[in-house]
């Protein structure tokens, strides 16, 4: 996995108005990208710590997040990959491991025999509940501390969805 290079201090003075050739905007955007990457890594560390605390070393954080994102659905591996955040991991390999460990059930699709559909087993549902509980605890604690109020998290999510839509459009224009 490649990490974004820290923003060069000589690249921009973030205190300058955004109208200065967009340098401040670029610096803020680069900082946001770095924060997203660090948050993702920290989320995986939090999941890892939770499983260690519970004495469960059978799953790595990526596998636990795959189970969490699979949820109640029955999907193809491709759909699961597009839903989740599996930075630096091989989803197919991890799904194969999860099947062999009894967390995921898989079967060939009746309509397209090349496609495999996956869903959680009861053991997979238990892991999903652990991750869900962790996320809910954090949400409650952050809400009580007021961290999620300014700006409101719903606005932050709206901004992130807009960036996601822009990036998706950029990828489409390449092809």
UniProtKB/TrEMBL annotation:
One annotated GO biological process: response to stress
GO MF annotations in UniProt: DNA binding; DNA-binding transcription factor activity
Gene3D superfamilies hit by this protein: Winged helix-like DNA-binding domain superfamily/Winged helix DNA-binding domain
Protein name (database record): MarR family transcriptional regulator
The organism's taxonomic lineage, starting at the top: Bacteria, Pseudomonadati, Pseudomonadota, Alphaproteobacteria, Rhodobacterales
Residues covered by the HTH marR-type domain: 29-165
Keywords: DNA-binding, Transcription, Transcription regulation
PANTHER family: TRANSCRIPTIONAL REGULATOR, MARR FAMILY, TRANSCRIPTIONAL REGULATORY PROTEIN
Source taxon at top rank: Bacteria
Entries under SMART domains matching the protein: HTH_MARR
